[in-house]
Amino acid sequence: MSLNSRIPEGPLDKKWQNHKNNIKLVNPANKRNIDVIVVGTGLAGASAAASLAEMGYNVKSFCFQDSPRRAHSIAAQGGINAAKNYQNDGDSVYRLFYDTVKGGDYRSREANVYRLAEVSTNIIDQCVAQGVPFARDYGGLLDNRSFGGVQVSRTFYAKGQTGQQLLLGAYSALSRQISKGKVKLYNRHEMMEVVKVDGKARGIIAKNLVTGEIERHGGHAVVLASGGYGNVFFLSTNAMGSNGSAAWKAHRKGAHFANPCYTQIHPTCIPVSGDYQSKLTLMSESLRNDGRIWVPKKKEDAEAVRKGTLKPTEIAEENRDYYLERRYPSFGNLVPRDVASRAAKERCDAGFGVNKTGEAVFLDFSSAIERYGNEEANVQGIDNPSKAKIKDLGEKVVEAKYGNLFQMYEKITGDNPYYTPMKIYPAVHYTMGGIWVDYNLMTSVPGLYAAGEANFSDHGANRLGASALMQGLADGYFVLPYTIGDYLADDIRTGAIDTNTKEFEEAEKEVKERIDKLINNNGKYSVDQFHKRLGKIMWNKCGMARNAEGLKEAIKEIRELREEFWKDVKVPGKADQYNPELDKAGRVADFLELGELMCVDALNREESAGGHFREEYQTEEGEAKRDDDNYRYVAAWEYTGEPSEAKLHKEELIFDNIELKTRSYK
């Protein structure tokens, strides 16, 4: 069965403008009578709530954190893409569009990606106006750096804390609307269910996480901006509270879930240190601008490094394998994330890993420090500077660009990356899959929208670095505020949504029954034990590499684990009080279903594309091998009761403006 993506007619570069020109509008007086619920306060949610309120709608904003500023967008480090071409290096809207489609291994919609590239330039102007302190060059102009998968510098940044600064900008806009009374903020509230009335999303059931109270909230439309589901793997770079429950609840109520197997493995993370670790820490991809990735050429050197009898700084240059530069000369260390991750895994699997577990490679800044030191010496007119002086000058330049990241690394590992190379290894980071949406960002449930990482729309099978922040703000500031009016224009006579109806009553009853089942289950094992076991199944059999046999095993094991969870999980405390263990149990219960669907999707997709790497489908050189004849589609799954019995709907991907060809970064 096919899906209607509602892509506008006309030339690619005119679709969005023509669509805006012809879309239905809601006049200002009528907007005052319409309520919109926004779940999530990250970049997509905060920008959407602020924009919709600024336009005149009444907005209810929900976040499970104690403040919107705690949303996980704050953790993004490296930057945000925009086709401004400030570096005069050949960038353009089309180039950003092309790089994004190619980076996603030709598994995204042309129309959505072009719109994203088109509005990207507006995002920077918006954020500068909000006071976001982007880095600037010597002349005071906004600076840019490069990210993986591109050959231009289009990434705007604020040291290594770009997400934090952008979120503070969106939060300031949101706070203004809260103070005006146009946004009502519900912090420490978690969405437990979507409520449908006559087939349309008309509200949510929310839980007050402090008191345990279950609440009904009505709205003419519901926007999910609740982030991704990377924590299904237990160990990921996501905050421990990040979860996929809002999206999964929407899926159970009829929203198709698209491409769940597309998971991004980030190549530059601090490696796993032990079985009792609760999360992983990201080292920004921006470090690959100046850091060079390598392993020893000789296995005996790698073994000596692992034993601690040889320091990396003692390995001569000619005995180092800069494997990304060797394999991909055109892009070098700035290949896309999926390519860099698999290359690191290949070297470690071959026995060249450099930490005790053998699962780490080096990220080395010595060359950059020397290069910058020489440049600074020239600028300062220092003739024949000593090596110590060059190192000192170079370290100051690197500190100005990446200082907080270096500090974070040293605090976690105890190693000073100015003197010894960082150790990194791939880890789960972002999910390209998510709730299926059409061009207007509406799901398959009328009135239910999804924005940012919660939807599937813009990244295909692999996300290029610095594009998550771009998509979140594009959706919230510049797409959803236009497109939601097309739906709400038919609701101006609906009146306030009554929550005293059988639909709200039944949804609330379902929520309470599920909570009672968890709290009254007299099991033996903690929630975390089940989550860890699920994470190991997912990482080992649906992680960086997958195969049919492993996926079939994973599906069987997850089913058994889910059955065991509902029989043996132990949730302490009570339901009508602050109980984070109960909240966690509900999220893990959803992960136990979502994880199975991810494996089903991965088993169905008999090709390799981007972050989905099936070992049976690879080139002789170990690269991803797509099957465009049979799998050039979005896999959108309809819930039927059991994840393994989900119904597949296919949205064919049409490429009229880009030639389909094998990705090459050589």
Automatic annotation (TrEMBL):
Alphabetically ordered keywords of this record: Cell membrane, Coiled coil, Electron transport, FAD, Flavoprotein, Membrane, Oxidoreductase, Transport
Subcellular location: Cell membrane
GO biological process: anaerobic respiration
Enzyme Commission numbers on file: 1.3.5.1
Known catalytic reactions: a quinone + succinate = fumarate + a quinol
Enzyme's top EC category: oxidoreductase
Cofactor(s) the protein needs: FAD
Recorded superkingdom: Bacteria
GO molecular function, one term: electron transfer activity
Membrane topology qualifier: Peripheral membrane protein
Domain Fumarate reductase/succinate dehydrogenase flavoprotein-like C-terminal: from-to ranges: 531-665
Family statement drawn from the similarity comment of this UniProt entry: Belongs to the FAD-dependent oxidoreductase 2 family. FRD/SDH subfamily.
Classification via NCBIfam families: PRK07573.1 (NF005749), sdhA_Bsu (TIGR01811)
Record protein name field: succinate dehydrogenase
Taxonomic classification: Bacteria, Pseudomonadati, Bacteroidota, Flavobacteriia, Flavobacteriales
